[in-house]
């Protein structure tokens, strides 16, 4: 009988190495036992490490690999045996591929995957709500499955500020630069500190991010800005998600009468995970204050949710988003409008105006007048605050800034009259 000792509940690296080795040695599933290491115990390694070099990669379908990675997070004592058995049977042609739905192992695998997916969505919603509140840096959460590690990247993308997630089995925290792991209170007595010091960062680097790519139905059914934002973190609708660090979603008040739409996040927004926090955001905040508008009473977002840039001299320089990205992100902007239900949308710059109006726009012709968008909402076009930063001299900057403030005052006056 072969015994495999895993370092922790989601020790993918050890499970994968052992499975790859013993499946190819044709060791039967019933001849292997699996368990998680207790305090002072060391995880499994091959007695002859060099023999691992002779193990060829297992040729598995992507769909099966994805299911295995998700099911490994399930709180089920027999999951390691089940997953080994499924991989073994597939590799050696023992699965009836025409009747997979009736196979007991495959049925159980699907149940574990569904359980993990459901809790992943619940955890992400809880983390998003926690991040939006800005009141505490620590989230207390009690998961039914071992889903914390696989959502580390999601949490960083959702909240770039330092935070901590405390669960009975795992503590995870982000210090603004690195992600760290330690045993939770319930597991601390059973896991040695040395194991965590050696394994914490390796586990983060080695365990894949759980990606729940949103569907149109997911977007349409989102019942709050928090849940919509959580869905958007895994958006893959255009290519910008790859170079950018994170999705930068809108923020502000739900059901507010005043909504502002910009172009896309910039370098500072991409790092912070919040819209309008860089140089243009500082100009925007100053102008809002002069116009009598409180930022925490409005909703602010962008037409495109990822930062498009080019590298130059080790700096990320803004590039205007292409039409593909504008079109891809419109589902998010439409959903934000549905949930915010603004009476007036202020379009900051050409990209925002063209995304909302769905036609070519010249700012000088459209600017500084309020017009009807639909029966429930009006629109106002003005410049983007970054335009003011690019003006060549102080006189032009002062003149255009004053005009920008007047546009915002026009928006404030309109909303005030609507509420009277």
TrEMBL record:
UniProt keyword annotation of Nucleotide-binding present: no
Matching NCBIfam families: UDG_fam4, UDG_fam_dom
Pfam families: UDG
Organism annotation: Acetobacter oryzifermentans
PANTHER family (alphabetical): TYPE-4 URACIL-DNA GLYCOSYLASE, TYPE-5 URACIL-DNA GLYCOSYLASE
CDD domains found in the cross-reference section: UDG-F4_TTUDGA_SPO1dp_like
Keyword tags: 4Fe-4S, DNA damage, DNA repair, Hydrolase, Iron, Iron-sulfur, Metal-binding
Family: Belongs to the uracil-DNA glycosylase (UDG) superfamily. Type 4 (UDGa) family.
Transmembrane segments: none
Name the UniProt record assigns to this protein: Type-4 uracil-DNA glycosylase
InterPro entries named among the record's database cross-references: UDG_Type-4/5, Ura-DNA_glyco_family4, Uracil-DNA_glycosylase-like, Uracil-DNA_glycosylase-like_sf
UniProt domain Uracil-DNA glycosylase-like: residue ranges: 249-409
SMART domains hit by this protein: UDG (SM00986), UreE_C (SM00987)
């Amino acid at each position: 009988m072969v015994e495999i000792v895993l370092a922790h509940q989601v020790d993918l690296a050890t499970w994968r190495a052992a499975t790859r080795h013993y499946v190819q040695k044709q060791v039967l599933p019933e001849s292997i036992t699996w368990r998680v290491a207790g305090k002072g115990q060391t995880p499994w390694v091959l007695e002859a490490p060099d023999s691992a070099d002779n193990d060829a990669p297992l040729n598995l379908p992507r769909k099966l690999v994805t299911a295995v990675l998700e099911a490994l997070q399930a709180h089920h004592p027999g999951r390691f045996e089940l997953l080994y058995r499924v991989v073994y049977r597939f590799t050696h042609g023992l699965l009836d591929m025409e009747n997979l739905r009736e196979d007991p192992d495959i049925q159980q695998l699907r149940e574990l995957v569904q359980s993990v997916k459901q809790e992943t969505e619940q955890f992400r919603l809880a983390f998003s709500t926690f991040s939006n509140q800005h009141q505490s840096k620590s989230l207390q959460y009690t998961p039914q499955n071992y889903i914390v590690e696989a959502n580390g990247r999601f949490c960083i993308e959702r909240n770039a500020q330092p935070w901590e997630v405390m669960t009975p089995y795992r503590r995870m925290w982000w210090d603004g630069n690195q992600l760290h792991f330690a045993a939770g209170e319930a597991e601390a007595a059973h896991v040695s500190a040395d194991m965590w010091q050696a394994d914490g960062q390796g586990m983060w680097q080695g365990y894949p991010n759980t990606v729940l790519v949103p569907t149109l139905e997911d977007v349409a059914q989102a019942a709050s800005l928090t849940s919509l934002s959580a869905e958007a973190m895994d958006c893959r609708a255009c290519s910008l998600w790859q170079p950018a660090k994170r999705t930068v979603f809108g923020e502000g008040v739900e059901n507010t009468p005043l909504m502002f739409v910009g172009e896309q996040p910039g370098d500072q927004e991409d790092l912070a995970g919040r819209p309008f926090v860089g140089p243009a955001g500082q100009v925007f905040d100053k102008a809002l204050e002069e116009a009598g508008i409180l930022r925490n009473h409005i909703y602010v977002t962008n037409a495109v949710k990822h930062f498009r840039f080019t590298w130059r001299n080790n700096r990320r320089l803004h590039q205007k988003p292409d039409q593909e990205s504008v079109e891809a992100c419109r589902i998010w902007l439409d959903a934000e409008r549905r949930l915010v239900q603004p009476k007036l949308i202020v379009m900051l710059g050409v990209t925002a105006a063209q995304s909302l109006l769905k036609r070519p726009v010249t700012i000088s012709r459209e600017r500084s007048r309020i017009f009807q968008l639909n029966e429930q909402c009006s629109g106002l076009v003005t410049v983007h605050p970054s335009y003011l930063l690019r003006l060549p001299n102080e006189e032009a900057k002062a003149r255009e800034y004053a005009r920008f403030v007047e546009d915002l005052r026009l928006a404030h006056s309109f909303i005030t009259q609507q509420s009277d």
